[in-house]
Description:
By secondary structure, the protein is α+β, with helices and mostly antiparallel strands.
Amino acid sequence: MQEKLTGTVEVDETYVGGKERGVGRGQYRDSDKKQAVVALVQRGGKVRTFPVERVTLANVGPILKKHIAKSANVDTDESMIYKNIKPWLPRHRTVNHTAREYVRHENNRMVTTNTVEGFFSLVKRSVYGTYHHWSKHHMHRYLAELEFRYNRRGLDDGGLQFVGFTDETAMRTDRAIRPTLRFQVCTGLLWRAEAFHQVD
Length: 200
């Protein structure tokens, strides 16, 4: 079982899928072509995504209870589905996007949903720029890949992570011995170990 998210957790929802002709912005909530997605982002940490049939408290509430620690600071927008979550998430605060409020400072705490919205911008860019179409049937797989990338965004060297020398002799400074370093290479959803020879 995954550990609960702690610290400051931002929660938001969006709709992912094909555009419909003749339908304006904000009028696609019940569309067959759109999939509702809820995301939880621990500020400075990891993201978790959940495709849901409809964005209602009945669907989103159990996700919040299961994945967010009661001690966490929870930031959302003013959506009605978050109005009654204080009994199990007492440190809940909202930003009022309708009033063009996007960040608020309150008792040494920054209340915003900019981090989770930034993640959603990556999701939508991957739809329009890379995959072009996501079916609802495979939505969870695409989201899992984007979660994986986001949660490992701090890795350096193009996904290479140094894990040590291959043998004791590699520690010698003798130039006749070419030390072989071991790295983990991130390929898709799997890690594999590969050896790279040191360049003279």
